[in-house]
Amino acid sequence: MNRRLHPNPATGSTRLVGSGLLAAGLMLVVFNTLGRAEDSVVLVDGSRVRGSIVSLAPDAVEIEGRSGIEKVGIAEIQEVMLDGEPESLASARTLLVRRDPRGAIEELAKIEAADIKDAEPRIREEYEFLKVAAAAGAATAADGAAAAQGLAAFLTRNARSHHFFEGQEMLGDLYARLGKYAESAAAYGALDRGPPALRIRAASSKARLLLDQGKAADAIKEFEAATKIPTEPGDTASAAQKGEAQLGMARCLAKTGKATDGVTMARAAIRAADPGDRDLLAAAFAALGECQRAVGGKDQDALISFLTVDLVYNSVPDRHAEALYNLVELWEATKQPERAREARQNLITTYPDSPWAKKLGAARSPS
Amino acid sequence: MRAILPPCSLLVLLATVAWAADPPAGASKETAADVAARALLEVLEERQMPDVTLAVLARVEADPEASVELKREAAFRRAGALIGVSRTEADSGKRAKLLDEAQASLDAFLKSGTPNGRQAIAAYTQKGSLLVERGRAKAEQANRPGADRKTLEAEAVKFFDEAVKSLEGKSKPGEPITIVTNAEDAVLQVLREVDAKIAALKKVGGEEEPKADAKESEDGDTKPEPKAKQKPAKQARLTIQQRRELEALEAEQEALRGKLIQTRLTGAAALFEKAKAYPEKSKERADTLAASAAMFKEIADKYPTKGGGLFARYYEGRNYAMLGKWEVAANTVVPLTMLDQKQPLAILLRSRACNTLLECQLAEKKYDKFDASIRKFALEDVSRLPGAKLDADWLGFKYRAAKALDTMAETLDPKDAKNNAERAKMQADAKKLAVEVAKANADFADEARELSAKLGKVVEEGERTFAAAFDEAKVALTTMQGHAGEAKAAAAAKDAVKEQAARKAAGEARTETVAKLEEALKLAGVAAPLSGDASADEALKDVTIEEVNQARYYLTFLLYEAGKFPEAAAIGRMLAERYPNAKGSRQAAKIAMASWQQAGQQATGEARDLALAKAAELAGIVMKTWPDEPESADAAVIAIGAAVSGRDPKAIVSIIEQVPASSPRKAEVQLRAGMALWREVQEARRGEEGDKPDEATIAGWRATAAKALDDGIAGFGDAKELPAPPMGQLAVAGALSRVQIAMEDDDDARAATLMQHPVYGPWTLVAGDNPLLKQGTLAEAALTLGLRLFIQTEDFAKAQQAMTGLEKVAGQGDEASAKLTAMYLAMGRDLQGQLESLGSGEKAASPEVRKRAEKILTGFEKFLDGVAARDSKTSSQMWVATTYLTLGSGKGTGAVVPPSQAAAYLKKSAEVYQKLLSNADNPEVKNFEPSIRLKMATIYQVLADWDEAQKQIDWILADPKRQNSLEAQVMAAEVLQAAGAAAAAAGDAEKANSLFREAASGRKTPPVVIWGWGNIANKVARQGIDVAGDKGQQNRDTFFDARLRVAECLVARARLPGKEKERPTRLDTAQAAIGMTRKLYPDLGGEGFAKRYEKLLKDVQREKGEKPDGFQALDAKAQAAAAAAQETTGATP
User: Residue B624: its chain A contacts at CB < 8 A?
Assistant: First the structure.
């Protein structure tokens, strides 16, 4: 399960016929009328599968609805909502998805110990995961090691959790923030055991690690390798991940003096994208903006690219924060201080903990 | 008062669908790039960012892969963006041009082929709105004083007629629409297509076809809906896809009906606006209002339950009210006054309808009709109503309600005790409403203030609270603003009596406001409101910190206005530091900075320095707190001012580094800072060795100054014309400083480019007779610098032009020659500075530097000799002489001007001066003979021709009127001291002794009285050495120099051979003189002088055989003396 993955109806799903929107709507009416509770699996396209969860595993979730048991691949899932979980638990999960780990910690603190103690095991496990995940998300250099240890311990104890791959990726992200690149790469490596979309994602994450270390040429190779991982036709989640890897290559080109090639690559990705794939388009326009800035003399083009992310494709927090950061600089460069101020305010208030907000803060601090 | 929503607001309120957002029907499949571009354009339009829209459209048009549909839309979208850009354009001419362009773009789009239905709807609607806007602009122009009303009115009417043509349909019900030429027909055409598709689908689903006599679809308001239960059954025969298609079509049908109403409303509104373009009470106005009323009525009758229909009903009533048909108007809007829904649209309509109803009732004096529910509605807190704001209609409504209540209260029988409670309630409500309107200080504010003042006397006061006092303060504030406005108007009308009375009234109202605010804050628990006290902020009484801070902000402003600067500054600073995010804090901080500036300007001495330091300190806080706000830019300018005034180059550099890239006044700050820093560089170079910063520091400042000037000049970008003053002057002054630096760098090409830049080039402007550079120091600087540059580059034609320009700038009359000489001297100083700069540093003796200096000198020699030979004008000869004097007398130019060459220049200068003096009959020469002789004395002094120098001085001082000339007396003392030194060196001890004595104590023998250094110091001290400003500084420098020279002369005399007997006494006297000066003036006039004093003291100590401890010895002696005194008296220190 991963909030940043795209739907993959072709892989891992054994959804039965008749579970369309209308049927789901009717089910909702019936269940509400009867006052019966249920689990719910929210897919990355926003739709939901309701019923009673039969099994939770790293690669898939099985849920029994009125039409029978349906197996949903982990790459398709945005969120698993458990029947009987405290409201604050669900809120904390939502906050975590929105990249607000501090908010999630505050929300988790509202849950009474007794509520968790008496809850069923899967809810206790969910609580445990969210606690360590939020701590990892909010960790700084000072408490990063402890947070990483907590998360790693959870993943060792719960190797069959549906959060396993997500947790490994979070662990990799945390190690990367702490500058522990080898540990980070190892954590991302765990995703290689997942479906193709996750394998591509793992390769892209490793490539980004190389990029962070200034090894742009190696990063390009890693991104290229990601695009070559074999996938099934119709595996849209993997296709989207490959698109992201291609955009990663474009960003590498921007950093290696080949920004014009990067622009061409990003534009090709946009042309080839499904107009409805908002996440990919967010990444594509952000990459295009970065390449245009790297070319030099194309501030107005870059501004339009980042503005497209800000105003049209703003549902991916990382990309939106990146766009806002760039817009602050570009509006300033184009002598639009009010707009720069607005973008800055938006970045600081919406993504206060993002690296982009911190980068902006650092740039503003008197030396 | 605004009586109608502008058509664009109507469009916003009634718009139900974003037409242009939909890809056109039948369009080819679009790529993600097309979809993204269209979505971005939509958001940009919604967010009103037309400038960015235009940039995106330019890229769409240039993109070979963009879809044909998207490109086709570009013309239409550009029109919308141009209209948007025009709204922020202040220049009416440019605005009209943008609107012309927008209209042309729309017409081009409409003519480019048959636009599909949705595009035609959007384009004709846009065109109609644009024309209404243009008509309104013309009507406004027509109403301005002095306007050609008739012509402008005719133009406005034409625009409105065209607007109606673009909006109003031509087709008749049932007739097919083949050619679309307006918005209404465009909507109807699409609506009919949609109707037909719906009917066809329903037929497939099994529904019966509509009967032949059924109303057209456009009458959606009255069309019976199919029975809900039938729908699923009937539609059961449809496939899922067909059902979805039907749902989408029905949604579109509904939206089109909304669009149809919107289009018709806009057409009627255009007529309403057209009516207002005609003069009041004219037949045309009445006829057009009647036509507008009829149109609105038709819409209202047709759509009685829709939002658009209700709006139409309201405007129908407004038309009647404007026609003075009070009863009809009241009856028309009454149903709207009873709307009790909580939706923003219902609240908006109800408030307007109530306002119109009360207007009618007051006009007809029907106070008894004032209904209780309307009274309750009037008393609502508008900020709590969904979507509502206290606009002109609400203010009108509230004021009229207050007026009605007051009148009703007065009509209650005072003899009947039963009425007392009701009367009191009515008056209290009326006062509340009047105060609210007065506080808003917009429409009806004057009337409301009058009414609230009247009611204030009759309404009983309850317990005093912060809220009550604050409300009263706000009303008093609006009263003050009203009087201030009256004063301004009276000043414009040159009615001094009225102006004075209004100013007095404004001052009284301000005092009252301050008192009320102080009272309010005290009631809130703030003990000392005027001192910026925030100690009780954690425990405020029944009031929020936001309200308290708002009151503080008002106080900051009012105290500043009242000239109470320290108090204003204290509150402003507290807000900036403690509540930087509070509303008004930024403005308060700005006022606080201005307060310290004002306090500084009005003070002297330490008080002045303290105030300026506080202004700079506050500026630093503002720059750190709001680095990217305009206040920060203002702060940077203030901080620069303080740093410049404080002669603090480090602070200047720090400000340059701090000013944010986004600061709107960055260019200004950079230019001011760059110029100030460049001045500091020049000053630092002139400092005494050991008393000035090291070369690396000066070079660093110079580089920073050059960069700041470059960046500041670059801030003007591609400006086509010089900005308005003061930025215009600043740009020119900045360019001049940069030219000086470039000339120093031997970069004549860059200097020439800057000088002759078409926009801000000083030479371009001065040669082009630009008004900014016709007179004044800027013109003088441009010409003198130009003269130097063109001489250097041997462009003698332009150099001659510059000289002519200088003569012109100097003007005519007695002062002209002096002015011209001063300008030549200034130029000479700059030239000298340039040569000194070349002659300093490691490369001073390098061949390149010598070559460069030679080039400059050759250029000057050639030009000067040419001028001396061909131009006999006194001014020209004076210039030649002063420039040679400059070239020959530079103290730091030795490395580039060899002594022999310098002496030759001085001789040339003396020759030219002498030649001038030989023509003593010339009145100009006669007038300036003393100055010329003073110059000659300087020359002969440098040439060690003491007799000749003394001759010139004797001539000057022979006239008792000139004996008080400080400049001449200083020169006389200098010559005597220098001659003494020369005599001593030549072994003539007696002569030297006599000259040193006269230099120190003066020469008292008439007719020529020379003061000598001692008397010079005394006289200067009497003039004041602690006064602020340049004069004070000059006096200080002269005083400490003169006192030092007295001691120098004593030491020199002590050293003379044959004077051994007097030696100890003279050395003791010199030591005592230094000690006394230090005791009286511990800083000894600054670090530079202190070093010179201590050096001389050490010399004396050495001569006396003491340890040369300098001041340390003096201090030790003083301490010993104090200890001895203590021992003697037994006093405790």
Answer: 366
ipTM: 0.73
Cβ of B36 within 8 Å of Cβ of A308? The answer is yes
Examine residue B279 and say whether the peptide bond preceding it is cis (omega within 30 degrees of 0): no
Residue window 625-644, chain B: list those with CB within 8 Å of chain A: 627-630
Q: Cβ contact (<8 Å) for A304 and B55?
A: yes
Q: Which residue from B30, B40, B628 is facing A311, i.e. has the nearest CB?
A: B40
Cross-chain CB nearest to B628 (options A274, A311, A337): A337
Q: Using alpha carbons, select from A260, A209, A249 the residue that is nearest to residue A225.
A: A249
The answer for residues whose C-beta is within 8 angstroms of residue B450's C-beta and 6 or more apart is none
Kindly list the strands in the beta sheet with A39-43, ordered across the sheet, starting from the edge strand earlier in the chain: A68-73, A60-65, A48-56, A39-43, A77-81
- What is the sign of the dihedral through the CA atoms of B672, B673, B676 and B682? negative
CB contact under 8 A, B44 and A285: no
Distance from CA of B634 to the nearest CA of A (A): 15
Helix (H) or strand (E) holding B589: helix B585-602
Nearest CA in chain B to A313: B36
Q: Which of A49-63, B372-386, B1002-1016 has the lowest mean pLDDT?
A: B1002-1016
Query: Which of B941, B1049, B929, B951 is closest to B1008 using CA atoms?
Result: B951
Kindly determine whether residue B624 and residue A366, on different chains, have CB atoms separated by under 8 Å. Answer: yes
SS (H, E, C) B601-620: HHCCHHHHHHHHHHHHHHHH
Contact indicator for B1070, B1038 with CB cutoff of 8 Å: no
Tell me whether strands A60-65 and A68-73 are parallel, antiparallel or unpaired. Answer: antiparallel
Distance (Å, rounded) from C-alpha B202 to C-alpha A146?
A: 67
Cβ neighbours, 10 Å, residue B91: 9
Residue of chain B with shortest Cα separation from A330 = B662
Contact B36 A285 (CB under 8 A): yes
pLDDT score, position B1130: 45
Count how many Cα atoms sit within 13 Å of the Cα of residue A40 in the half-sphere of its side chain.
Answer: 17
Alpha-carbon dihedral B232, B235, B241, B247, rounded to 10 degrees = -70
> How far, in Å, CA of A348 to CA of A359, rounded?
11
Chain B residues in contact with A275 (beta carbon < 8 A) = 30-32, 35-36
Using one digit for the tens of pLDDT, what is the confidence trace for B97-151? 888 889 888 888 888 766 667 778 888 888 898 898 889 888 888 877 778 888 9
Q: Which of residues 105-124 of B touch A (CB under 8 A)?
A: none
CB atoms within 10 A of CB B597: 22
Q: Give the distance from residue A127's alpha carbon to the nearest chain B alpha carbon, in angstroms.
A: 38
Measure the CA–CA gap between B629 and A249, rounded to whole angstroms.
38
- The closest CB to that of B32, out of A271, A332, A340, belongs to A271
Per-residue three-class SS string for B845-877: CCHHHHHHHHHHHHHHHHHHHHHHHHCCCHHHH
Q: Which residues in chain B have Cβ-Cβ distances shorter than 8 Å to A279?
A: none
Residues B345 and B308: beta-carbon distance below 8 Å: no
pLDDT digits (tens, 9 = 90+) for B506-550: 999 999 999 999 999 999 889 899 888 888 888 887 788 889 999
Q: Which chain B residues are within 8 Å of A303, Cβ to Cβ?
A: 52, 55
Q: What is the pTM of this model?
A: 0.48
Q: Do A366 and B65 touch (CB under 8 A)?
A: no
User: pLDDT above 70 covers what percent of chain A?
Assistant: 88
